[in-house]
Amino acid sequence: MDDSDTQAEVFIELRKRLQSGRLVLSSGFAEDPSEVDISTGSSYVRIKGAKSCCNIDLPKGVSITPPSCREMQRVSGDGLHIRLQLQNDNDMEVLPTLIESLKAQKSYLFACQSCRETILMERVFHRVLPLPNGNWNALVDDWCCHPDPFANRKLLPRKDDCLLGDTFVLVNWGTGPNEALILEPKTADTDVSKENGGKDLMQKPNKNVRVICKCCRAMLGEVISSDTLKLYITEVTVKSPIEDSENTNLLNRSLFVENVIACRIVEVSSSQSTFRFSVQGHDGKAYILLWLLNADTLLVSSKTSVSGSAFTPSEDISYNEHKSYCASNVVKVLYLPCVTSNHRDIVDAWEKDIGVHSLPLPVTTCQELLLLLSASTGSLPPSMRTMNTFQVAFMKLASN
């Protein structure tokens, strides 16, 4: 096991609804229970070991019951496990994703998330409507006694409409390509003319035509019809024209992807009571099976994720001899990569299960997500990294 796959010295998982949690101290922090001293306050936990010490900052309204920190158990390969009791008066609100935040009769600017370049100028949507569930065709077949009247028909936005999918929005392009966007076919047999901004492709739409940011060449979506764009919520940001562009959407790429997908699966599970997801590339191939376990977790880890986005320590000015960490709101998930032939029976079963919700994303974003999940798994104590055939991971949740 290399350094990039070593567990955190300090790991705390707290369940706010259950008002319980566990603290794991690796042998690098302390090898014997007698070496550990834990003190708690209204919004902090201070842990002292033989080799190191740290402060844990908890959200307002969350505290650890001191007597629960006394019983310790040694687990082979992990270190010391300590069960905790939690007092929680904190009601967390998840920040809405783009799908939940778009409203009619409001003005928006669309920008590339990677480079912040504005790709669609000020737009005011007269209607913002949700698309049917991804399995709606199958439901029509099950419930209707006559042939499906919607077979082979696309639901497309009219002018000044915005249609909301699970991981994308459909917008009417109207007047033609914007200068900040490029239409690029996936195959080389179609030439895109830079002089006309790709209007030839708009006249002859192809499902394989991708929408590319002219500035950074990131894939933002696809062309659905001659005047309709599909833009993925992991690739674009939307803001009001009056917002200060210097103070918005400044999250780094990895943290943005992590936040958006975590918040989105919470939204979908809340509205549709589904907890299993198939993350699919825009090529239709399944890349990750994702199972949401809970969304009420606070996590503290002294190991920085591979992206540097989550669980990153910050120096405590008041205690120079201590390291300081902040608890993060996260979702706990099980996941199974589909990129190999392993567990083909599970993948096939999920693909046939109507209760599994598909989340289409660009292929590169599926790969980014898999790296983030793998990095989270590698930071966990060894005994907590797997559950049955699935791997365990935590994703940071953007919240108020």
Automatic annotation (TrEMBL):
It catalyses: S-ubiquitinyl-[E2 ubiquitin-conjugating enzyme]-L-cysteine + [acceptor protein]-L-lysine = [E2 ubiquitin-conjugating enzyme]-L-cysteine + N(6)-ubiquitinyl-[acceptor protein]-L-lysine. One of its GO terms (molecular function) is cyclin binding. GO terms for biological process: proteasome-mediated ubiquitin-dependent protein catabolic process; protein autoubiquitination; protein monoubiquitination; protein polyubiquitination. It comes from the Eukaryota. Pfam families: HECT_2. Its EC number is 2.3.2.26. One of its GO terms (cellular component) is nucleus. E3 ubiquitin-protein ligase which accepts ubiquitin from specific E2 ubiquitin-conjugating enzymes, and transfers it to substrates, generally promoting their degradation by the proteasome. Independently of its E3 ubiquitin-protein ligase activity, acts as an inhibitor of CPSF3 endonuclease activity by blocking CPSF3 active site. Interacts with UBE2C/UbcH10 (E2 ubiquitin-conjugating enzyme). In vitro, interacts with cyclin-B. This is E3 ubiquitin-protein ligase E3D. It comes from Acipenser oxyrinchus oxyrinchus. The gene is UBE3D.
